[in-house]
Design brief:
single chain, alpha/beta, Urease, subunit C, domain 1, TIM Barrel, 2 domains, 8-stranded mixed beta sheet, 14 helices, 30% helix, globular, binds (4S)-2,6-dioxohexahydropyrimidine-4-carboxylic acid, binds zinc ion
């Protein structure tokens, strides 16, 4: 049996309310012991990893990633996207369905799973789409998608504008117990918009989208979840209104969960002036007040998870200018240091809550068997150096794409290595 001892780290496993100095012993692909000191002399043939000064957490999970394969391999592949994940400290990613072909049939889910087995450096949990071809007109065969291995359904990138279709999807969710993950923008209201509606959009004379475009759909979908008892998951919350609505839904006992992205808790729409298309995404960067509300939502538990919406686009596409360039930014290789620098070290969010939002909470939302260091659990582990200071250098990204507004930012708290199924990243 192969054994690995991660020695002298600070073990942070929020699911088990553990925050202690000590050792983690791994046997093959499982966690064997957590905490205390393991005497190396008593464990034959053990490989030791020195974790002095490092945090030892469950393997991080990013529940919102675009891997682009099949169909958009010039932006990213499962191989490059999961290498970016591994570098960024993530051992698992949930991959969105807006591929080409769309993940609207079991065949595409199976294709993603096969490609992941062949080429991935992180566990890939695919989503299927809610509607065929993301067209918003006809539900997919959701039970068949789940059967093929989809962990959730989403038309991310697009809102399902037909409320009756959403009701049907959520009724199925109540019956079969899976999340319906929704992109919330009323497309009649945000038609043609390339950024947030506000001072900056007026100054730059660019078409803007009001917060109301997001809030209206968040309200609608929470109400539909209440009507059906289904599970609604609100993707990339960006407005103060959405945070308030999710809080309201939770108070009413609706099965609503929600996530926030690093860009929505660190940047405002004024970023467009200096960063241009590298700050263009849907939903867009908003105002200071919205950023503050998103942080409050993370702190009080309204926003359950932190995810990236890693959305790679080729440089030539992002060079098309604000009107034509596709929306989205890469996020896998900057998430952890942004969370540490802007939430944890800034004393906004506790370390345990930050780790919880990237481990057992997303695992729980997606019903995946990951996110803890419980004895017997799969040995997915992330090591983070909370004191490491480094600058973001997009030229060194493992992602195929470079579209980030964080290039050159000096951040503190970086992932150092991961183990997946008990295998250290450096050994792969
Ligand atoms: O900015 C975005 N880009 N938002 C989405 O919801 C989709 C994503 C993409 O696929 O590029
Ligand atoms: Zn998205």
């Amino acid at each position: 049996m192969g054994r690995i001892l991660i020695q002298n780290g600070r073990i942070v496993d929020p699911a088990n309310r553990i925050d202690v100095a000590g050792d983690v012993l791994i046997a093959d692909d499982r966690i064997e012991r957590v905490g205390g000191r393991v005497d190396v002399a008593e464990v034959p043939d053990v490989d030791v990893i020195d974790a002095e000064g490092l945090l030892v957490t469950p393997g991080l999970i990013d529940m919102h990633v675009h891997l682009r394969e099949p169909g958009f391999e010039h932006k990213e592949t499962i191989a490059t996207g999961t290498l970016a994940a591994e570098t960024g400290g993530f051992t698992s990613v949930a991959s969105m369905a807006n591929t080409d072909p769309v993940s609207d049939s079991p065949d595409v889910i199976e294709y993603v799973n096969t490609r992941a087995e062949e080429s991935a450096s992180a566990n890939v949990f695919p989503l299927g789409s809610i509607t065929s071809k993301l067209a918003g007109e006809e539900l997919t065969d959701i039970p068949a998608l789940l059967e093929a291995g989809a962990v959730a359904v989403s038309d991310d990138g697009k809102t399902v504008m037909n409320a009756e279709l959403m009701r049907q999807a959520l009724a199925l969710s109540a019956e079969l117990d899976f999340p319906v993950s929704v992109h919330c923008e009323e497309h009649n209201l945000n038609a043609g918009s390339v950024m947030n509606l506000g001072e900056t959009s007026r100054k730059l004379d660019l078409p803007g989208s009001a917060n109301a475009a997001e809030d209206i759909i968040v309200a609608r979908d929470i109400m539909l979840a209440e009507l059906t008892s289904g599970h609604i998951h609100i993707l990339h919350v960006s407005t103060a209104g959405s945070v308030e609505l999710v809080r309201w839904g939770k108070r009413r006992g609706v099965h609503v969960t929600a996530e926030a992205m690093p860009h929505h808790f660190t940047l405002t729409d004024s970023e467009i002036e200096t960063q241009g298309t590298n700050a263009k995404m849907h939903p867009p960067l908003r105002s200071e007040k919205d950023v503050e509300a998103v942080i409050e939502g993370l702190c009080d538990g309204t926003l359950d998870a932190i995810a990236t919406d890693h959305a790679p686009h080729a440089p030539s596409e992002k060079a098309l200018g604000m009107i034509e360039a596709p929306p989205g930014i890469v996020g896998l290789e900057t998430c952890v240091p942004l969370v540490f620098t802007h939430l944890v070290r800034a004393n906004r969010l506790s370390l345990a809550d930050a780790i919880a939002k990237m481990t057992y909470i997303p695992a729980h939302i997606l019903h995946i068997d990951r996110g803890t260091l419980s004895v017997g659990a799969v040995a997915d582990v992330t090591l983070i150096d909370p004191e490491r200071v480094a600058k973001v250098d997009s030229e060194r990204f493992h992602s195929k794409s470079r579209n980030t507004p964080f290039d050159g930012w000096e951040l503190t708290g970086w992932p150092v290595m991961v183990l997946r199924n008990g295998v250290p990243s450096e050994k792969r």
